[in-house]
Amino acid sequence: MQLSYTDAIAFGFCSLSICFFLTLNLRSKQRFFSYLSRQLGLNQFIQYFCNSKHNKVWVISIDYDGTFDDGHEVIKAWINQFRNQFSRVILMIGSIRQSRFTDELNDRYNNNGSIRRIEDFAYENEFEFDSFLIGDSLDNREAGETYLIWSIQDDIALKASCNVLTNETLKFLYDKKTPIVHAQMHHIKEVFPNKDITYTLIDDREDIGAFLNKHITTSIPPRVTYNFVLFNEFLECKTPFKPIPSTANLFDTQWRLHHSNKTPPCYPLIKHSLAT
Question: Which of 29, 58, 238, 245 has the most CB atoms in a 10 Å sphere around its CB?
């Protein structure tokens, strides 16, 4: 049956009136679009994209000596307070034990085990683990390759550590973890180029945090926020410094060259005597 011209106009007017009435009775645009999404079966889809945490990754780099070995249960409890704000929580090794040799030296003289326990800790507590070590930034290695061959003596990993450095300034920078933090932030940004990343270093030395907060700003990749957490003498996780968001617009695709050549920004041009 066909509608007459008059009936069609009346039908159209009636439809517009109903839509207008519904719009007036919805208290906000949010409620109105929520109503439409339910009718179209898109509610869950829209909720997913409205949930801000889906685009956030939290990377936590953990020091070993005096931090993880003394307080992994405290660290776990602290992480669990905030983990629901992120879609992924990834642990990394934030110790200067970046080779088997340096780990064995520390184990021998400190009697406090291996940094590989951080990996076990991650999986036991349903965190992710990223095995990137600073040696992976040298000689075109793939991320995780140094850790994969941890069981053998690795000259490249040793070369990437402070143990073979003769320059006192470079040793100082390694001790302050500037190269490690720089390399890890850039690696993780390559893995998640379109994510908002919070990078947190947990360490028991406040002087490391103070130095990094002073010198790390130019090393932070785009859409990365750097944060330092102090594991203090009271076995607490505290944040003595404000997080530092990136001000960079472009990602430094040549970041590995800074490690090969020991150049800024991950190796700041500072004098050892003034590096405070």
Answer: 58
Residue whose token pair is 């801000």? 52
> Tokens 């920078």 sit at which residue?
173
Give the residue among 108, 87, 84 at the shortest CA–CA distance from 97.
108
> Can you tell me the distance from the alpha carbon of 228 to that of 213, in angstroms, rounded to the nearest whole number?
8
> Residue holding tokens 């517009």?
16
d(CA 100, CA 54): 36
DSSP 231: E
Q: pTM for the complete prediction?
A: 0.78
Residue 221 is classified by DSSP as P
Torsion angle defined by CA atoms of residues 160, 161, 166 and 169, in that order, rounded to the nearest 10 degrees: 100
For the record, the structure tokens of 47 come out as: 């909720």
Q: What is the chain's length?
A: 276
Q: Do the bridges between strand 224-231 and strand 196-203 make them parallel or antiparallel, or are there none, so unpaired?
A: parallel
* 276 residues of the chain, pLDDT tens digit each: 454 545 555 545 455 444 444 444 434 444 444 444 444 444 443 344 445 677 899 999 999 999 999 899 999 999 999 999 999 999 999 998 888 888 888 888 888 878 899 999 999 999 999 999 999 998 888 999 999 988 778 888 877 776 667 788 888 888 999 999 999 999 999 999 999 999 999 999 999 999 999 999 999 999 999 999 999 999 999 999 999 999 999 999 999 998 888 888 888 776 544 444
Chain CA centroid to CA 82, Å:
13
